[in-house]
Design a protein that fits this description.
Blueprint: E1 3-8, H1 16-24, E2 29-32, E3 41-45, E4 48-52, E5 65-68, E6 73-74, H2 76-88, E7 96-99, E8 103-104, H3 107-120, H4 132-140, H5 147-150, H6 153-174, H7 182-196, E9 200-201, H8 203-212, E10 217-220, H9 244-251, E11 260-266, E12 269-271, H10 284-292, E13 305-307, E14 309-310, H11 311-321, E15 325-329, E16 339-348, E17 354-355, E18 368-376, H12 393-406, E19 410-414, E20 422-424
Parallel strand pairs: 1-10, 1-11, 2-5, 2-10, 5-7, 6-8, 7-9, 11-15, 14-16, 15-19
Antiparallel strand pairs: 3-4, 12-13, 16-17, 16-18, 19-20
The structure holds guanosine-5'-diphosphate, 6-O-phosphoryl inosine monophosphate and magnesium ion (MG).
């Protein structure tokens, strides 16, 4: 038995779904604990490509309980179209469950996400426009609508009768947009509630039972550490807690339940949306990474910004998540680069000070320029490699350098999108984990 969190160690899109899919084979329960339809998780399995937004990627295997946890925000329309499409492709929803406490993304959240972004002008966040920020804002303001509310027409009516006029003030007066009808939303969303009713339950109780039965539980993170509301590059973040701590709150389990935390990191860095990105390459090298890595957003189709691997961010991610080991993805994308760079420290453009740890992630982050170590490329294909020793010498050195810089073992290396394009160096669940250095006397 082992309960494992898979967490994005960068700005999202690290290849978490591929790693989750790999580990889900031995899991009994797969849980999404935060985020919503902003996620885009791609798994290439048996010649098919699946793109998940709300549904845990564990649904690809039959017989696994798949949970949308209480920390998620769920757009019921997006959920229904996603599960319908998956079922058309032959997948089964028998063990799919949604937490009654998860919050619902309502039509006004979607409209307000777009309107707020537009009004921010140059200060826009670059959200996915899936209503994430406004849904979590209402949750925190204790005005949100939860999945269980969709099932009770009277409760839903009372909430909407209070909420919709307030949202209409914003829509009409602040954004010059047409008002919404509480009655129309009530009819439509009660109906949607009836469609999803069969999935809704107390998922925390389900997980607690599975823990008691010594089942294997896999917590599938969405987004990434640097997009974390508390620990990311605020305000250019999402509105949930993707980092490992968020798994306990967002799934409704105690920290003592967790055995391992696996960080997923690309062999370089990408980011979609606005915000600081010290190692970003805006030149031909950046274009080459984007083209070779097919770095196009799964949810929004936006081109991803690309740059060199950043060990400062990596160390920060080890700290925030308590990573035990790392899964490094997309190593193959670097196959055709003569020279590779890894950022080992930041230099403050204004003061000249250098930092090997992220200083303060706020305004200073914007002033950081990378200090690089240059490594030789391997200029050989890696996609067919199936063991660490089959990798070209310089690729091994690259991974060893990453491991050394982050002080965390690299357990998995991904060398292509398919399931078998994978090198397992150490068992990520039972193998070596990060050891705390000895305290200095
Ligand atoms: P996630 O959001 O973290 O699950 O990542 P995404 O699915 O948004 O983006 C990762 C993309 O890279 C997907 O298209 C994957 O199929 C693909 N991918 C994952 N691992 C590898 C790899 O090792 N090599 C290559 N070339 N592609 C990969
Ligand atoms: P997965 O799970 C990459 C980014 C958006 C934007 C910021 C806030 O596929 O890794 P939001 O819509 O959440 O309010 O947008 O966060 N973002 C992601 N970037 N991968 C994701 O998910 C993301 N989800 C949100 O681009 O910068
Ligand atoms: Mg993604």
């Amino acid at each position: 038995m082992a309960n494992v969190i898979v967490v994005g160690a960068q700005f999202g899109d690290e290849g978490k779904a591929k790693v989750t899919d790999l580990l889900a084979r031995n899991a009994d329960v797969v849980v999404r604990y935060q985020g919503g339809a902003n996620a885009g998780h791609t798994v290439v399995a048996n010649g098919n490509t699946y793109k998940f937004h709300l549904i845990p990627s564990g649904i690809l295997y039959s017989g696994k309980v798949c949970i949308l946890g209480p920390g998620m925000v769920i757009d019921p329309k997006a959920f229904i179209s996603e599960i319908d499409a998956l079922m058309e492709r032959g997948l089964d929803d028998a063990l799919l469950r949604i937490s009654a406490s998860a919050h619902v993304t309502m039509p006004y959240h979607l409209i307000l996400d777009a309107a707020e972004e537009e009004s921010r002008g140059a200060q826009k966040i670059g959200t996915t426009k899936r209503g994430i920020g406004p849904t979590y804002a209402d949750k925190c303001a204790r005005s949100g609508i939860r999945m269980e509310d969709l099932l009770d027409r009277d409760v839903l009516k009372a909430k909407l009768d209070w909420m919709v006029p307030r949202k209409n003030v914003l829509l009409e007066r602040l954004y010059n947009l047409p008002p919404l009808s509480a009655k129309e939303i009530l009819d439509e969303y009660y109906e949607l509630g009836q469609k999803v009713k069969k999935y809704v339950c107390d998922t925390s109780a389900l997980i607690f039972q599975a823990v008691g039965e010594r089942k294997n539980i896999l917590f599938e993170g969405a987004q990434g550490t640097l997009l974390d509301l508390d620990h990311g590059s605020y305000p250019f973040v999402t509105s949930s807690s993707p980092s490992a701590g968020g798994a306990c709150v967002g799934a409704g389990v105690g920290p003592t339940t967790i055995d391992r935390v696996i960080g997923v990191s690309k062999a370089y860095v990408t980011r979609v949306g606005e915000g600081p990105f010290p190692t970003e390459l805006t030149d031909e090298l950046g274009n080459k990474l984007r083209e070779t890595g097919v770095e196009i957003g799964t949810t929004t189709g936006r081109p991803r910004r690309c740059g060199w691997f950043d060990a400062v961010l990596g160390r920060y991610s080890v700290r925030i998540n308590g990573l035990d080991c790392l899964a490094v993805t997309k190593l193959d994308v670097l196959d055709a680069f003569e020279e590779l760079k890894i950022c080992t420290a930041y230099r403050d453009r204004e003061t000249g000070e250098t930092y090997t740890d992220l200083p303060s992630i706020g305004s200073k982050f914007q002033r950081m320029e990378p200090v690089y170590k240059t490594l030789k490329g391997w200029l050989k294909p890696t996609t067919e490699c199936r063991s660490f020793k089959e990798l070209p010498e310089m690729a091994r050195q690259y991974l060893e350098f990453m491991q050394h810089e982050l002080d965390v073992p690299v357990a998995i290396v991904s060398v292509g999108p398919k399931r078998d394009n994978t090198i397992v160096i150490e068992d990520p669940i039972h193998g070596p984990k990060r050891v705390l250095s000895k305290p200095t006397a």
